[in-house]
Amino acid sequence: MKSVLFSRFFILLPWILIVIIMLDVDTRRPAPSLTPRPYFSPYVAGRGGARLPLRRGSPDSGPGRGAQKRNQSGPQPPPQPEPPLPTIYAITPTYSRPVQKAELTRLANTFRQVAQLHWILVEDAAARSELVSRFLARAGLPSTHLHVPTPRRYKRPGLPRATEQRNAGLAWLRQRHQHQRAQPGVLFFADDDNTYSLELFQEMRTTRKVSVWPVGLVGGRRYERPLVENGKVVGWYTGWRADRPFAIDMAGFAVSLQVILSNPKAVFKRHGSQPGMQESDFLKQITTVEELEPKANNCTKVLVWHTRTEKVNLANEPKYHLDTVKIEV
Ligand code: UGA
Ligand code: MN
């Protein structure tokens, strides 16, 4: 009898040990990584802009996501198919000047951190410049490089800027989505000298038709903003031409791709357009004030700044090339 019990015990012993070891290992699983992640890190950028877009509702991406999966024990519910992340199309007019590459560098450094962003860079030039072509090739961003020159007669102080370039961007967008059912997308006009927070892109991504938000350092004030009551825009806080139907800067709104496609004639107009009225003239064609979607906590947060770069002092620049090397700046 005793020997039977002994033999049973020795047969069971290894199994008991295995169960104990497994339970022990399970409780010692690594804690979630404490490695700091970029605040709004929407993807992990790889060479040439390879990226894992952040899925809505998931605070993690890239390595974090995998680690999270391993940490969960027990059977997993089947993953829900998530709707695709709307692409943000940023149309940037740009022109040749000493600070151009610096401006584009700042912009690319921001855009590179935004998931699913397509940069439409439109040069105000008769041809694509080598500087911008080289720059874009190395920017690590999905992009489209267009060009259209502003007719000379419109290159005067007091006249609106970048009309032709923004229209070229709109035309490209409409052409690209001509035949296919439009993928979800959001259009935003991103001048090359402004400053954009990453949070701004999270806000605009959910634009259903036309969304609006405050802009800092514009209109002769610290900021301009849409005034919101009960979730609706009811007026404008502005210090400049309050009579504008949409008293908002170009950096203060985004439009869904669907709205752009269903209003194929909506463009920026030269005829009769004054500086400062371009935004209103465009928005009038596609929406109404009542329809606007306020973003940035009911338009109480500044997430974009209308910064302007000082003209550089080149007083000591030699007339003829003196240096032994030629350097792109
Ligand atoms: C303000 C608005 O914020 C602009 O959106 C608007 O286009 C402009 O006024 C206007 O007057 O039309 P502001 O800072 O005065 O902006 O203008 P810029 O930043 O000098 O130009 C706006 C954009 O157009 C920039 O991306 C700039 O690179 C581009 N641009 C400017 C050109 O493509 N060609 C030009 O000759 C000048
Ligand atoms: Mn500007």
From TrEMBL:
Annotated keywords: Glycoprotein, Golgi apparatus, Manganese, Membrane, Metal-binding, Signal-anchor, Transferase, Transmembrane, Transmembrane helix
Residues binding Mn(2+): 193
Reactions that this protein is recorded to catalyse: 3-O-(beta-D-galactosyl-(1->3)-beta-D-galactosyl-(1->4)-beta-D-xylosyl)-L-seryl-[protein] + UDP-alpha-D-glucuronate = 3-O-(beta-D-GlcA-(1->3)-beta-D-Gal-(1->3)-beta-D-Gal-(1->4)-beta-D-Xyl)-L-seryl-[protein] + UDP + H(+)
Origin superkingdom: Eukaryota
Comp. bias (Low complexity): 50-62
Cofactor(s) for this UniProt protein: Mn(2+)
Transmembrane segments: 6-25
CDD domains given in the database record: GlcAT-I (cd00218)
Region (Disordered): 50-89
Membrane topology label: Single-pass type II membrane protein
Entry GO CC: Golgi membrane
Biased composition (Pro residues): 75-86
Residues carrying a glycan: 298
Any one GO BP annotation for this protein: chondroitin sulfate proteoglycan biosynthetic process
Biological pathway: Protein modification; protein glycosylation
Positions that bind UDP-alpha-D-glucuronate: 93-95, 124, 161, 166, 191-193, 306-308
GO molecular function ontology, one term from the record: metal ion binding
Active site: 279
InterPro entries assigned to the protein according to its UniProt record, in alphabetical order: Glyco_trans_43, Nucleotide-diphossugar_trans
UniProt site (Interaction with galactose moiety of substrate glycoprotein): 224, 316
EC nos: 2.4.1.135
Predominant location category: Golgi
Cellular compartment(s): Golgi apparatus membrane
Protein family per UniProt: Belongs to the glycosyltransferase 43 family.
Protein name according to UniProt: Galactosylgalactosylxylosylprotein 3-beta-glucuronosyltransferase
UniProt source species: Trichechus manatus latirostris (Florida manatee)
Lineage: Eukaryota, Metazoa, Chordata, Craniata, Vertebrata
